[in-house]
Amino acid sequence: MAVIFERTKGLLDVPTHYCPGCTHGVIHRLVAESLEELGVLDRATGVAPVGCSVLAYDYFSCDMHEAAHGRAPAVATGIKRAIPDSIVFTYQGDGDLAAIGTAEIVHAAARGERITTIFVNNCIYGMTGGQMAPTTLPGQVTETSPYGRDVNTAGHPIRVAEMISTLDGAVYVERVSVDSVPNILKAKKAIKKAFEIQMQGLGFTLIEVLSTCPTNWGLAPVEALKWLRENMIPYYPLGVKKDATTGEVK
Amino acid sequence: MAEKILMKGNEAIGEAAIHAGCQCFFGYPITPQTEVAAYMARKMPKIGRVFLQAESEVAAINMVYGAAGSGVRVLTSSSSPGISLKAEGISYIAGAELPCVIINIVRGGPGLGGIQPAQSDYLQATKGCGHGDYKMVVFAPASVQEMVDLVQEGFDVADMYRTPVMVMGDGMLGQMMEPVEFKERQGRQLPSKDWATTGLRGKREKHNVINSLFLKPEELEEHNRKLQAKYREIENNEVKYEMYNCEGEVDIVIAAYGITSRICKNAVKMLEKEGIKVGLIRPITLWPFPSKAFEEMCGKTKHGFISVELSEGQMIEDVALAVNGRAPIHFYGRSGGMVPTPAEIANKIKAIVGGAK
Amino acid sequence: MAIAKFREERCKGCGLCLEVCPVKIIGFDEKLNAKGYHPAAITEENMKKCVGCASCARICPDLVITVEK
């Protein structure tokens, strides 16, 4: 019997604190597998800022930094500039990246920092109990948009992948989703490609991963996948937003 | 003997950091210290090191966090409002026990304030630069040469204790030019940085984590106790100060640091001619504060102490703590960028000690 | 013949694997694991139908499942 699927060495063999059915766990696996398969786990350093995934520093087997809320791209810049042959990634939620950390992500991309950002978009602040995030959809009910997000007062959700793809320093930007196994396979491909581009030092790469938050969406895990498909994907279309590595720029 | 060269304070800071092996500099423009960044922009790329202008002081201090956590010597520089922006990052750096040097070329405050020299960040630097029970070593140079020496000393102290170190000058020290030399320094025996995130690289079994998050209160309290023990050690080993004209009995003792101490020394000489003996205690480390020097002088000063600052009175609080009621404490300060003349200070002292003898 | 092995103590009973299994052979065990969840499991009988596609393993957020073929 050959092993078809087993645990990646990129993740420590410990249980995680994530809620049942939260797809952070899947995304962690995709990142860890990519680093392992590319043989760069040994020189990788990840940056986990404030958010549900802050404790990723206890889960990834490579060296890790815990960063202040919103500042992971700056911390990652410091790491990469200090050790240029390291493989550096940030693993950020939507509150972290698209609210308090907007300046840092924009300038890391504009500078073309040779780092990879894994941007987990689940349309809500998870760790603090379900508040409206910059990516919360119009009409979506959260702790701080109890009557549904009203774009007239709370503004419109931000499409980060598209925004970042306008910056020349960003050479590969794709939005993927982990709502189904086929999409998970595509997400893995995208994440691995982003790391390969970083290994070649071509510029900044960002993969936006649509993800679920069963607890704060108030849905069962399987329902949450459905909600993502029916509500998030239409507003956040999947696909490559930029690929300057082959000259094909969307 | 290294030869002396005339250098602007801000630029001398950059050169000193280079001598100390600073690998990365992350800065942001703000008067009156921007020449530190401009100097590093010119020099660092030429020697294969990193200069980066960040998008904000907040980003800069977090870049420092990343680079310091990766095990290299790193410098950042700013001025008062910029230091306020860095406060959260500095607290993280202290919590994660990362070594770095932070320059503050102080300007008048609060708010946007002014761009002239001031010392109105004393309390921020020594007591309130970010949340949590943490301390930061704060050096207060009084000359461009001393800035050079203390920046290099700062990197050693930072690495020795895994702590942020601030070198706090002011707009005058940053902008003035003085002859400096970059002497060969007797470096310290420093611990290796096996905690740094260099990547496992096949040499390490377990990963390193740079972190200041401790969700379990028992762990955070234990972590705080560990930090406090470090601060006691720094207080025991790293206090620096100068006692000037303090031999025997004196009429009064001035407490002054940085540029102000030089103005006060002139006042001391003026008053000497009028038969008034004035001692001066110059803290070189603002934290750890040289309390013993003040305790020592309590019984030897007729009219107690006078704190002279470019502020509305901040170091005076530490002087009062050290003197602990054993002698009267006076204050003379100018703020907003105003700088007192020696005569002003001499007149104030004469008013206290009762005029010329 | 393929086998999917479940690390029961790590399962949080989220049910995603049940959803994506193409041959619908995964169910919840009656007993509870230490975390208090009914862990996902495949009966010996059902295991025979396993095609070894590892869809269950790929969607599992907690890396509970190992698949051999």
TrEMBL record, chain A:
GO function terms (MF aspect): oxidoreductase activity, acting on the aldehyde or oxo group of donors, iron-sulfur protein as acceptor; thiamine pyrophosphate binding
Gene Ontology biological process: cellular respiration
Pfam families reported for this sequence: TPP_enzyme_C
UniProt keyword list: Oxidoreductase
Residue span, Thiamine pyrophosphate enzyme TPP-binding domain: 65-209
This protein's name: 2-oxoglutarate oxidoreductase
Automatic annotation (TrEMBL), chain B:
Swiss-Prot/TrEMBL keywords: Oxidoreductase
One annotated GO molecular function: 3-methyl-2-oxobutanoate dehydrogenase (ferredoxin) activity
Leading EC class: oxidoreductase
Pfam families referenced in this protein's UniProt entry, alphabetically: PFOR_II, POR_N
EC number: 1.2.7.7
Matches recorded under InterPro entries: 2-oxoacid_oxidoreductase (IPR052368), PFOR_II (IPR033412), Pyrv_Fd/Flavodoxin_OxRdtase_N (IPR002880), THDP-binding (IPR029061), Transketo_C/PFOR_II (IPR009014)
Gene3D superfamilies membership: 3.40.50.920, 3.40.50.970
SUPFAM superfamilies cross-referenced by the UniProt entry: Thiamin diphosphate-binding fold (THDP-binding), TK C-terminal domain-like
Span of domain Pyruvate:ferredoxin oxidoreductase core: 251-345
Domain Pyruvate flavodoxin/ferredoxin oxidoreductase pyrimidine binding, chain residue ranges per copy: 15-237
Protein name (database record): 2-ketoisovalerate ferredoxin reductase
Lineage, uppermost ranks: Bacteria, Bacillati, Bacillota, Clostridia, Eubacteriales
Automatic annotation (TrEMBL), chain C:
4Fe-4S ferredoxin-type domain residues: 2-31, 41-69
Pfam families, per database record: Fer4_7
Matches recorded under InterPro entries: 4Fe4S_Fe-S-bd (IPR017896), 4Fe4S_Fe_S_CS (IPR017900)
Keyword Metal-binding: yes
Database matches in PROSITE patterns: 4FE4S_FER_1, 4FE4S_FER_2
Top-level division of the source organism's lineage: Bacteria
UniProt keyword terms in alphabetical order: Iron, Iron-sulfur, Metal-binding
A GO MF label: iron-sulfur cluster binding
Protein name: 2-oxoacid:acceptor oxidoreductase subunit delta
